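dumping this here before i forget
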Amino acid sequence: VCGFDPRTQPDSLHEHQPVLELVAGMLSAVLDADTIATTSARELELARRASQTDPLTALHNRRGWDQYLLTEEQRYRRFGDQACVIVIDLDQLKNVNDTHGHAAGDHLMRRTARVLTAGVRTGDVVARLGGDEFGIIAVGASPAQTEDLVTRLEDALQRAGIEACVGYAPYLPATGFPGAWDTA
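structure:
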């Protein structure tokens, strides 16, 4: 606690010093506790993000994908929004790993992630779901819009020299995202 007054204060003011020190100590303790809580919350958020992100591609991993679908499923059912699920499975990852080594396979995965991320629309969700499999939620897309998106993605993958199988299916309220995933 700090104060300024150009006039000289009475000596009796010193008797309040223990109370001022107590209040200052309490304020410091509150500030320290708040700083610790803020740091902990930030670390928890970073850990949550890390647990939902594929370290190789920086895309959502399977946990992040599943969490997104769980959160969005209710909203899609409630509002009847359109969406399509796109599944991309690389054809040659095992061959690349066996022939050129895992570093080359990792490079293929990162390159695929860049091609897919560059090819989707703003708001679409891209994930690496494991091994050589990627998933995309084409948010708000009709089947016709998704067909156009899939064609663009297939062309981009081909131009990048990436062999892949691509499937897609619309989100239907009756079967939800799991049904679209199975169909795709």
